[in-house]
Recover the amino acids of this structure.
């Protein structure tokens, strides 16, 4: 069922009660808040268990003992040495949640949040449901990840509303930050190394740690199913390792059920917007350090609008997995021993992980800016930098798009109706909030040009382009916040545009092809392609853009505007992918080292943009480049191998060319061979 | 015996005019006593009320019973053998069911489905041989009937059966044929019921020690045919350990071994085709089984644990040290409370159930949470010295898991409960409460998980299916083995407001069984498969396993004379 998770398709936010939790903070003492009596109702089955007990249980588990013996036998070291190493890993990893520290964090966060945000809106109904669920079964909190601000906001809300504090899975770089690392640890963060790869002992310690937390239910577990912070504000294809670890206690019958809480955090304006854009352009990310954080503190002077934290409806793993998993498969081997997950389990975990991301998307709240960004990006960049877009045109279009978005079921944060500011005021203040991206002069909207220090002038065309690209990518990121609403109809619009057919089955075939090619870019639930197609048809029909009959899909006269908007929405992605496809096909070599590949592709894109052959700056984004590589791997046209220093990619040129040809409409789509989801 | 409920006609629970629970008759320790706390527990647990009664149809309406389909040729030849038979409606209905909830519920409502067309009472092995020969000759379907205590729909007549169905009632084959004191074996006719077997052996100073909870009514042949298990299996073994020799009459002739050697290596043990065959291959007529001198000394005991987890850990340790007493059972908190509700009135002073409970734990078990504590009941048997020594060993282990000795009386009451609980179901059915028990066996590391998950599943399913009241969902660990345990679940609910309570009940039980299997539990520890659990046989024993069983059936009984359609 495609719509099982779409029980709230309601447009707008009128029906939901979002409460600004900062309002209370602005009225009463932050110190009082930090020192409030904290008396949450924990999970009913939880045994009280200190952090030391938890670590001890992990180290003494049958599973770790077994793995230690196995590793000792493989490496020739003694079991004690291996266990010592395990102990070290656990020490590096484990959280050390302390209420004192939470109070301190609470106090600091109250101050910071009030400075940054005009409001933090939380849906009380979701919070109430969470409060209930926590007592019933072990709970997994699954927020999306768009900003460092995500990190402690959940804990802050939990503290404020007397809900047990979560343990939070975090990337190891955060642990390395002086002081901050320790503070996070004491706030419940536990730290996971990046690129664990085949480190057997590390996997074992981590999975036993996670499993023990879930099994005993000593605290809710919070983790980002996307694995890392999205650099593009677009959902990231979920990582499956952690998801599997979290679900295993249910598969193995160690708990009756597990409750997943999807949480959608949405920002009007993201703290790291400019950093992210530069990172995407290959200007290296600053190492996470405390000094870097302090340097960034000028960021704190600006206004970031409001934040929405939407706690989704609790989802029962038992219910979700019904009929998908035969739990008897764990009957014949002791549950404490390592066991490779079966294909059935892998498919289920992948399905569920993707579903969770989709639910997060559906729960996310977007403001006018996401819509305006879509429209701004459809104007030629040169227009935006040189002559500007007429304000009237932009606002008219935005209002048109608002209607479309609402038709498509978007959760739109657009105060309107009686007693609210008129729409134009809303848009004006939106543009004002995003002064880092656009400015409005004499009735026109311009893209902001980075100030270049006088002594550096004159600057080269490349430098100028990079500076423009940074702003375009920021804009693209904000557009991405609305993509999940439009992507399915947009795929259909693109299919109509490229195939020029009205035959439903041909359209479906092309739709599926696009979905396959772009499923590293947008989140699709595995196995749901025909539901996605139906949804696209339904939505386009609903807004009057197409007529759908048994065999045919025809465009209505009134539908051209919608379809061309949707098709233009996807165009940057198609253009970017094609640049890379052509690079891979036309290049003489067919083995590419990762770093060289990324540089070469960026150079090519730069060249093409400067020569006017390529119109989208998004082709410069390293995120896109990596996605193309992953997609081609998934489509079995590129194989990855580990060379001495870095990854190498071997390309099947003919296969890539075929994909490119289908995408250009030169040949009809064939079924692409896709390998199942990445390993757990 | 009752025709639409459990046990003896003179024995039942009822609420008397004062609203107090009372157990009638003279047969049990509890008989004739007032049980003051039961009403409060009953009403509190199920939300049941004395005002809402659901009485049974008082007498069987013979009109509801289909007239028999008789095979005239068979009847004629059978008559000439002189073996008694009947096609009286009551005789037929009585042998058409076991004690599954749906069977009893239907009888109480006066509903009767397909029943045997006639009943025969063979008097000895040779009679059975004749009956089977005639059945083969005239293509008649035979269903062996022992004590009628099946809880697997094993006695239900297949509705699709069009042939004449003859119930072969073995109750007249109830003699001990000889006792061999040199080898300590007894040769017994298979129709004997448990309590008679023990009583007769006791007269000679022996016992089998095989005491399934149904032993008052179940028969030796039934035990063999279902792979029964006795409460005291830790000393005496289960039926497969007790049987030395079996004779079974099949359509192909009589199957038996040629000697009484204590163990033989002659390919797969043919006894294992017989044990658990559930009446699909033939009629067990005579069994040679182990006997033991009667124990010199018996002592009950009980231990209270702060929680179920500790209790299970203790049982596991006892099993590890292989020092389990004759019986050791662990009840969960709900059953502990239930046990308390069944305390008879000792003085005229009335104390409420909760007061009594409070008094019990406050005075004796300070610091134990009355909503979490649980109790293990124990039975020791053997020489006096050894029993006392054994008892100390077990209590020492219990102490390591926070267990405190709670007296002989609590232990004994625990075992008594076993015999009266089936009567209690009949009481419940008078007040809109239906229930049942079912069992499984499971490895040690899964015991806690299976108990929690199955109980939770029952509660969840009841909610989903629209049951208006919180069900009773409780369990106990009833047997320990080296590698695992036997777990019993009890489940009952108030069905007021449901249009088809039996269907709801069956759906919940089915879900509970799914949950058991998903948690590494077996399809059955000793109740057997019958028709109730057939749907899971293939996944339980694999395709090849099914093929093996099927090919045995095909060879032994190609015409499906033993057509109860159990198991396969």
């Amino acid at each position: 069922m495609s719509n099982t998770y779409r029980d709230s398709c309601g447009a707008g936010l009128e029906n939901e009660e979002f409460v600004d939790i900062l309002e209370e903070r602005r009225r009463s003492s932050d110190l009082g808040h930090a020192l409030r009596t904290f008396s949450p109702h924990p999970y009913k089955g939880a045994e009280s268990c200190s952090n030391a007990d938890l670590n001890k249980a992990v180290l003494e588990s049958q599973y770790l003992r077994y793995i230690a013996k196995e590793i000792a036998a493989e490496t020739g070291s003694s079991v004690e040495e291996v266990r010592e190493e395990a102990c070290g890993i656990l020490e590096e990893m484990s959280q050390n949640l302390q209420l004192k520290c939470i109070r301190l964090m609470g106090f600091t966060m109250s101050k910071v949040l009030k400075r940054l945000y005009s409001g933090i809106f939380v849906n009380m109904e979701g919070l109430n449901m969470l409060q209930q669920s926590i007592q019933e079964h072990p709970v997994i909190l699954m927020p999306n990840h768009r900003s460092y601000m995500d990190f402690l906001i959940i804990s802050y809300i939990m503290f404020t509303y007397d809900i047990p504090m979560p343990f939070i899975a975090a990337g190891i770089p955060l642990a390395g930050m002086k002081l901050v690392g320790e503070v996070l640890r004491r706030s419940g963060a536990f730290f996971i190394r990046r690129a664990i790869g085949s480190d057997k002992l590390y996997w074992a310690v981590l999975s036993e740690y996670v499993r023990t937390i879930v099994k005993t239910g000593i605290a809710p577990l919070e983790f980002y199913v996307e694995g890392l912070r999205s650099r593009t504000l677009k959902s990231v294809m979920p990582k499956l390792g952690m998801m599997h670890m979290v679900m295993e206690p249910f598969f193995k019958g160690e708990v009756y059920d597990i409750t997943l809480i999807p949480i959608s955090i949405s920002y009007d304006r993201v703290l790291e917007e400019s950093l992210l854009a530069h990172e995407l352009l290959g200007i290296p990310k600053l190492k996470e350090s405390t000094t870097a954080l302090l340097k960034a503190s000028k960021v704190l002077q600006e206004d970031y609008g409001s934040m929405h934290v939407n706690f989704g409806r609790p989802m029962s793993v038992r219910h979700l997995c019904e009929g998908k998993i035969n739990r008897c498969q764990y009957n014949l081997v002791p549950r404490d021993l390592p066991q490779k997950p079966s294909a059935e389990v892998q498919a289920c975990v992948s399905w569920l992980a993707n579903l969770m991301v989709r639910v997060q998307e559906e729960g996310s709240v977007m403001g006018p800016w996401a819509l305006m960004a879509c429209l701004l990006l459809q104007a030629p960049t040169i227009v935006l930098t040189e002559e500007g877009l007429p304000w009237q045109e932009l606002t008219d279009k935005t209002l048109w798009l608002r209607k479309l978005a609402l038709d498509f079921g978007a959760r739109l944060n657009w105060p309107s109706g009686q007693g609210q500011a008129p729409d134009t005021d809303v848009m004006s203040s939106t543009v004002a909030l995003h002064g880092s991206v656009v400015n409005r002069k004499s009735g026109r909207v311009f893209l902001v040009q980075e100030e270049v220090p006088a002594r550096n002038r004159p600057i080269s065309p490349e430098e100028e382009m990079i500076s423009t690209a940074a702003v375009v990518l920021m804009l693209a990121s904000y557009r991405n916040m609305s993509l999940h609403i439009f992507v399915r109809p947009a795929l259909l619009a693109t299919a109509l545009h490229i195939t020029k057919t009205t035959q439903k089955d041909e359209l479906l075939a092309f739709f599926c092809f696009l979905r396959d090619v772009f499923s590293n870019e947008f989140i699709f639930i595995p196995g749901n392609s025909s539901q996605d197609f139906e949804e696209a048809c339904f939505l386009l029909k609903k807004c009057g853009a197409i007529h759908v009959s048994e065999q045919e899909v025809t465009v209505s006269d009134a539908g051209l505007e919608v379809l061309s908007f949707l098709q233009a929405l996807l165009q940057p992605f198609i253009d970017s992918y094609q640049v890379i496809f052509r690079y891979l096909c036309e290049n003489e070599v067919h083995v590419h080292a990762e770093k060289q590949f990324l540089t070469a592709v960026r150079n090519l894109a730069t060249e093409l943009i400067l020569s006017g052959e390529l119109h989208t700056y998004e082709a410069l984004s390293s995120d896109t480049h990596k996605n193309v590589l992953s997609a081609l791997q998934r489509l079995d046209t590129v194989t990855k191998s580990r060379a001495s220093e870095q990854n190498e990619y071997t390309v099947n040129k003919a296969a890539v060319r075929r994909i490119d040809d289908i995408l250009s409409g030169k040949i009809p789509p064939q079924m692409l061979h896709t390998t199942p989801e990445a390993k757990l | 015996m009752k025709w639409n409920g459990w046990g003896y006609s003179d024995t039942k629970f009822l609420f008397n005019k004062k609203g107090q629970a009372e157990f009638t008759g003279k047969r049990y320790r509890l008989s004739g006593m007032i049980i003051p706390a039961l009403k409060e527990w009953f009403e509190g647990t199920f939300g049941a009320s004395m005002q809402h009664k659901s009485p049974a149809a008082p007498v069987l309406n013979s009109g509801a019973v289909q007239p028999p389909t008789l095979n005239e040729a068979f009847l004629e030849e059978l008559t000439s053998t002189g073996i008694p038979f009947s096609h009286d409606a009551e005789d037929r209905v009585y042998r058409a069911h076991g004690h599954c909830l749906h069977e009893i519920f239907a009888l109480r409502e006066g509903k009767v489905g397909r029943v045997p067309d006639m009943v025969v009472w063979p008097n000895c092995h040779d009679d059975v041989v004749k009956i089977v020969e005639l059945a083969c000759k005239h293509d008649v379907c035979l269903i062996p009937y022992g004590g009628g205590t099946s809880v697997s729909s094993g006695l239900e007549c297949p509705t699709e059966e069009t042939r004449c169905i003859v119930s072969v009632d073995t109750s007249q084959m109830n003699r001990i044929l000889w006792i061999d004191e040199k080898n300590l074996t007894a040769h017994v006719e298979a129709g004997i019921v448990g309590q008679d077997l023990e009583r007769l052996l006791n007269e000679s100073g022996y016992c089998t020690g095989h005491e399934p909870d149904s032993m008052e009514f179940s028969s030796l042949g039934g035990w063999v045919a279902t792979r029964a298990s006795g409460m005291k299996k830790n000393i005496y073994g289960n039926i497969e350990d007790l049987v030395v020799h079996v004779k079974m009459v099949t359509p192909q002739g009589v199957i038996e071994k040629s000697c009484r050697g204590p163990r033989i290596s002659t390919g797969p043990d043919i006894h294992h085709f017989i044990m658990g065959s559930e009446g699909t291959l033939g009629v067990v007529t005579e069994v040679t089984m182990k006997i033991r001198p009667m124990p010199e000394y018996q002592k009950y005991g009980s231990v209270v644990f702060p929680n179920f987890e500790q209790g299970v850990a203790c049982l596991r340790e006892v099993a590890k040290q292989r020092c389990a007493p004759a019986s050791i059972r662990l009840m969960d908190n709900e059953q502990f409370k239930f046990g308390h509700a069944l305390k008879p009135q000792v003085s005229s002073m009335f104390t409420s159930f909760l007061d009594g409970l409070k008094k019990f734990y406050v005075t004796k078990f300070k610091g134990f949470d009355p909503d979490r504590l649980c109790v293990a009941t124990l039975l020791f048997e053997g020489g006096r010295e050894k029993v006392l020594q054994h008892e100390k060993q077990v209590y020492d282990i219990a102490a390591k898991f926070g267990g405190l000795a709670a007296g002989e009386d609590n232990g004994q009451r625990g075992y008594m409960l076993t015999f009266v609980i089936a009567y209690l179901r009949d009481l419940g059915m008078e007040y809109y409460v239906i229930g049942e028990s079912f069992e499984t066996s499971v490895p040690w590391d899964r015991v806690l998980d299976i108990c929690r998950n199955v109980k939770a599943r029952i509660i969840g399913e009841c909610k989903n299916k629209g049951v208006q009241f919180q069900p009773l969902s409780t369990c106990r660990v009833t047997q320990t083995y080296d590698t695992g345990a036997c777990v019993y679940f009890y489940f009952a609910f108030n069905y007021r407001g449901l249009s088809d309570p039996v269907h709801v009940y069956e759906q919940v039980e089915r879900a509970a069984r799914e949950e058991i299997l998903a948690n590494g539990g077996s399809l059955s520890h000793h109740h057997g498969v019958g028709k109730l659990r057939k749907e899971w046989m293939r996944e339980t024993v694999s395709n090849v396993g099914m093929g093996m069983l099927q090919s045995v059936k095909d060879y032994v009984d190609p015409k499906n004379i033993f057509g109860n359609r159990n198991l396969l």
User: Anything to note?
Assistant: The radius of gyration of chain B is 24 Å. The mean pLDDT of chain B is 94. Residues 408-430 of chain B form the longest helix (23 residues). Chain B has five domains: 69-169, 176-293, 297-415, 422-526, 531-561.
